[in-house]
């Protein structure tokens, strides 16, 4: 069941700038949904429409069955209580301790002191930062600050958590830790998470489904495994390549050709094909030798995804037959 719906949504700003155009999108309850695109694609505008910090120029945004476009500002404040937000630059109150930062939205919502303290303590333990409860943000690392930000976003038990480039300011190791924490928020607390990012590795690591924005339009979406294994649009293929690093770039290919004069081909690795036996059968069955010269395979949604670039050596007609045999089991690109 869709928890968040975009129905023909457009958003234009003063000066004729169109941020989003005719977006139709459903985000299911309980999923981690990533929205990816380059700078200026409309990602941040889309997330601000979900919590109604922006209103669409056309169409409707529906959250938990409520059309946000039909609500007054007073009613929107009530809706926003069920939507948490995690920011790229943390947005913590520097003059308040970790405990006070997490307690702040509960204080605004007029929770009782005992109930407030119980909730904050619970959340600080959940995100793994209870030992720093009385420190100020200035004494925390970036990863610790983001854990505080996640705890604060969860304070009022939201159904939806919006993470806008939440790991962009973090190093790779800390990024992994924060992504694992967000996944726990989803699986253990049942919170629906919308991740806004320009990094396909973030999508691979955490998301169930992904939507690709380009110049304000939704150009591709689907489950993560399908989008990684069979991207339809060129922008998506470029994003996937940045996460898998499985195909040689032009300069890599030139160096490979200098060392390997045989025929070069790239074979896609599919979860439903045992690539090793398939490659051995195709090559040796036609008297062709092969060597793996480049490649990368990663786990995406529990499936092996990637490709291998091979040097095939033998008579041209034998190599042609070997490529044809391999193509019977998996897509193959002949690089010559």
What's the gist of this structure?
By secondary structure, the protein is of the alpha/beta class.
Could you describe the 3D structure shown?
Residues 4-240 form the ABC transporter domain. One of its GO terms (molecular function) is ATP binding. The protein is α/β, with parallel strands linked by helices. The protein has 12 helices and 14 strands. A 6-stranded mixed sheet has the order 6-7-8-3-9-10, sandwiched between helices. It has a 4-stranded antiparallel sheet with strand order 2-1-4-5, with helices on one face. A hairpin with a 2-residue loop joins β12 and β13. The mean pLDDT is 92.
Q: What key attributes describe this structure?
A:
336 residues, alpha/beta, Rossmann fold, Alpha-Beta Plaits, 2 domains, six-stranded mixed sheet, 12 helices, 14 strands, 29% strand, elongated
- Radius of gyration, rounded? 24 Å
Record the strand order, biggest sheet.
6-7-8-3-9-10
Catalogue the unreliable spans: none
Number of strands: 14
Return the CATH architecture of the largest domain: 3-Layer(aba) Sandwich
Overall 3D shape: elongated
CATH topology name of the largest domain, in short, is Rossmann fold
- Domain count: the total is 2
CATH hierarchy class name of the largest domain: Alpha Beta
How far apart lie the N and C ends?
Answer: 48 Å
Structural class: alpha/beta
Helix-strand topology string: EEEHEEHEHHHEHEHEEHHHEHEEHE
Summarize the biggest pleated sheet.
6 strands, mixed
Helicity range: 25-40%
Query: Count of helical segments?
Result: 12
Strand fraction equals 25-35%
Mean pLDDT: 92
């Amino acid at each position: 069941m869709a928890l968040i719906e975009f129905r023909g949504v457009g958003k234009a700003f003063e000066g004729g700038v169109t941020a989003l155009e005719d977006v139709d999108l459903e985000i299911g309850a309980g999923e981690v949904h990533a929205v990816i695109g380059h700078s200026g694609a409309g990602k941040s505008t889309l997330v601000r429409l979900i919590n109604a910090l922006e209103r669409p120029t056309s169409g409707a945004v529906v959250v938990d069955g409520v059309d946000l476009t039909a609500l007054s500002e007073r009613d929107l404040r009530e809706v926003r209580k069920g939507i948490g937000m995690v920011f790229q630059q943390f947005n913590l109150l520097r003059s308040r301790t970790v405990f006070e930062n997490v307690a702040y939205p509960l204080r605004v919502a007029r929770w009782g002191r005992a109930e407030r303290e119980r909730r904050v303590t619970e959340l600080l333990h959940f995100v793994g930062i209870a030992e720093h409860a009385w420190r100020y943000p200035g004494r925390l690392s970036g990863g610790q600050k983001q854990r505080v930000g996640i705890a604060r976003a969860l304070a009022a038990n939201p159904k939806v958590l919006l993470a806008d480039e939440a790991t962009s300011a973090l190093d790779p190791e800390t990024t992994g830790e924060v992504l694992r924490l967000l996944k726990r928020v989803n699986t253990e607390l049942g919170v629906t998470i919308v991740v806004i990012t320009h990094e396909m590795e973030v999508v691979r690591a955490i998301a169930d489904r992904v939507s690709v924005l380009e110049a304000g339009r939704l150009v591709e979406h689907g489950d993560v495994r399908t989008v990684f294994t069979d991207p339809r649009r060129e922008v998506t293929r470029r994003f996937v390549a940045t996460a898998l690093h499985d195909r040689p770039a032009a300069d890599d290919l030139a160096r490979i050709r200098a060392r390997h004069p045989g025929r070069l081909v790239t074979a896609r690795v599919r979860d439903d094909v045992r690539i090793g036996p398939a490659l051995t059968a195709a090559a040796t069955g036609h008297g062709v030798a092969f060597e793996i010269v480049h490649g990368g395979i990663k786990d995406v949604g529990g499936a092996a995804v990637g490709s291998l670039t091979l040097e095939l050596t033998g008579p041209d007609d034998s190599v042609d037959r070997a490529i044809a045999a391999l193509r019977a089991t998996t897509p193959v690109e002949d690089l010559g």
